[in-house]
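Human:
Take a look at this sequence-structure pair and walk me through the tokens.
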Amino acid sequence: MASRMNMQTLVDAVNQDPELNRRGRYYSIQFRLEMDDRPLLFSIENGRLVSVVEDAGTPAAFTLKGSAPAWRQFFLEEPPPGYHDVAAMIDRGHVGLEGDPMPWLANMLYIKVVIDHWKAIHADV
């Protein structure tokens, strides 16, 4: 289960990042990140992370889907090659991109920084 405290810490970290908020000021989306069968829905409105909740039913623009072992490799302090970045994980086939790729491609840096904030606080892995 998602830890409310860790997820609130993630929301706070993202929303207190002035560069990220400037970059995403017009970006609103819902995307899903899945570790095995555990879906986390990220809701972003005008560059602010509104919530991160376990949710498989709400429509999302795209899903980043990988195994729990693959995500654990990513979360290591010094991940092995191919696990150091979510885009590298997609390129190497460790994570799949499902749904519409355009919102991912157009805002990849924003999404990568959100996921890096998650990695930095080790939110509920």
